[in-house]
Amino acid sequence: MSDATQDGPMLAADGRPLKRSLARALRAQKLRALMLIAPLLIFILVTFIAPIVDMLFRSVENQIVSETLPRTVVALDEWDPSDVPEDDVYAALALDFYAATERREHTRLGSRLNYETTGMSSLFRKTGRGVDDIGEIYTDQFVDLNERWEDPLFWLPLVSDSGWLSSRPAEGEDRPLSLFRIDAEFEASFPRAAEAYETFARTIQQTDGDDPAEEEPWHLVYAALYHDLMAIHESGAGAEGLGRFDGPVFVEALEAVPGFETQSYRAAFEDIDEDWLDLEVWGTIEAFSDPFTAGYFLSSVDLQLTPQGIEAQPEDQRLYLLLFWRTLFMSGVITISCILLGYPIAYLLSNLPTRTSNLLLILVLLPFWTSLLVRTSAWKVLLQQQGVINDILVWIGLVADDSRLALINNQTGTIIAMTHILLPFMILPMFSVMKTIPPSYVRAAKSLGATNWTAFWRVYFPQSIPGIGAGCILVFILAIGYYITPELVGGRTGTFISNRIAFHISSSLNWGLAAALGSILLAVVLVLYWLYDRIVGIDNVKLG
Amino acid sequence: MKIKSLMLLTTGAALATTGAMADGHMAGSMTLVSWGGAYQISQQRAYSEPYAEMHEGLEVIWDESSAEAVARLRAMNEAGNITWDLVDVVAADAMRLCDEGLAMEIDHDEVLAPAPDGTPASEDFGEFIVSDCFIPQIVYSTTFGYRNDVAEWNGAEPDSVCAVFDTETFPGQRSLERRPIANLEWALICDGVAIEDVYDTLETEEGLDRAFAMLDTIKDQTVWWSAGADTPQLLADGEVVIGSTYNGRLFSLIEEQGQPVNMLWDWQMFDLDGWIIPAGLPEDRLARTLDFVRFATDTQRLADQALYISYGPTRASSAPLVGNHADLGIAMAPHMPTDPANSENTFLFNYEWWADYRDDMDARFQAWLAQ
Fold it and tell me: Predicted ipTM?
């Protein structure tokens, strides 16, 4: 046949190359498979992966500084850290602070920076209360000059873009006001005042839904206008260009400004709190002005970011490395005690007749059906110094009445309680693996002359290792992340890193630090998993 | 639309003032957040049960999440879905929530009922209104209880907070809260620092070292608690011989459970607890909440709460109305932290100071504990 001798790709019945046809069929199959698992995949992505990623992102996120003080951060670029910033930095800070207080974001920023430098929190709160007065001195003088300066409606036509002005809803019309736009011409003549007014108008619109036509501009707008007018005055440009802006009022102001009483922005901030002249305060703002920070990760390993670079925490504040180490160590101890206790039980269960072993298995599973809190509280009752176990020990004369053992509120308590709670996770995989080991192997070894011990150690035990591996990895990883039990029975020496994470999430609200600690914990688990795979081999793990 | 709802609102208000309750514009359920335990039960019995009786069909849901209120409200705010209507918090948390704009600012005289003699609410509550968002309910204190049957003490009885640090005269386990607040202050007072210098001393490195050195002397003999119920339980079990907790918990341990425990009022740490209204509630839920708050914080209701728990009402006009315990029939006034006999030595937290130093102190305290 001619087909057999044909050069080129083999063709399917419809004339397409067979290879492509096959790929298409496979693709369709894969797509079908994907569609079948799509609901689960989407569910996991939306409810599990995405929140975790979002939370982990907080460990490096630091946008709060540049978002709350955008102008200050830019103005600080030029700053020489050995001296107090120039007045224009303080002017930027004033405008940022006005807007931040209106949006009530300054305290949140204060708390954020307080993690780095003590006192920032109260400095920001105090400044938030006092910032409203900055620039008042100029407002008063403008109003003394002409009362029209006080009128919001006097300002509005001057500063707003004509397009925005005409889009304003008429009286009684129920239509939302679009976001304020500044007039280009006004902006060109009075850049500082334009920026201040625009910030004012947009902030009050966005935070409270207020209309700039009804609110007096911030004092800061007057201060900015003063500086603009002074600049015009000094450049000698005169009043020619001001005709469009309600001439007489502006001309009058232009003539009057050189005689105004003045106050620098820096002096205004100094009046609120002298700490604004403190280089450490500025150093902190500058050091944390990047939108991303390694600060939380550094804190998580007992280091800190200072304006001078990365330094170790003072000795009496180092905590986290100790806690990480303790968490790993205790999880290891708990895993080992689970193996020691669980192995004989699993062995017994797998060698008993099914009827009996099923009954006993229920006893293993029973704790699963009891609340974790109940089990932990039961240990509190049993283990305390006046508790059942100590009482029994005293009664049988093992310990003296005045030297009862401290079994709870310390490491011992955590290890005992968590071993009990995690034991089923060790027994079940071991049991299911041991169940599959044919008893004939051990019998064969014995018939060939092996002692009981040799038969167990050389024949039985190696076959049960996959069960131990599965149990270890389950128990160890569960133990690393536990926090309820250590919180209740751990006292001061038996708590885990997760207890600190929980503390930072719900009490201190330092979510960034909590996220960094969590990320490190996650990384540790992944590294251990990788090591485990290299040493034991994850293929050796069997759950049944 | 806007005018219509405005009209509805004013009609509602008019109806409310004339006494005909306009349930129409109020939500049919409300979620109140508190601390659980005996304290929440006292609120239920004094406030929400009588209120629910007056409003048929109203569903009152209690949530015991006050310990995490700030974190949860912040998260709700970020998610844009406020599910709580009224939250019970301590004064420091109320200040924080108010500063961040998570709690609603209120005009106390407008929202709260005046005293029976017509005194406006702001005067009746007086200095207890520590923040524009805070509606005070009770004054409580963190103080000490001790077992009165310890043989090793040879009949000695603690009469000052410094007994906690005196392991010679008063041997045995102690229990203290697992956080620096209050512990550092007590340590310094017992190390001989004058009460007015406590915070100035803590601010210096040497002063802080001094406080920790004092705590070092009892570090290993102390159970560090994190839940208010721990100390009463430990005292009842005989695990500890002296421990700090909230005075109401000790009251219930001593008077209701009859345990061999006595109170120690020396240098009790005063604190306030009250309501805040989350910012951004929809109109109908806000109307319901405001109506409830007005009812639950009037003079009689605040005095009623003291029938169930030994926390002092924050209204001056409520104090004379405090009667006998609802179930035990004993007079409650002598068990209040504000009673003159109990409040000879009282300590007021410096909220401002703690707001600044909280993070530093906590880091240092936890590191100290772990080492």
Answer: 0.86
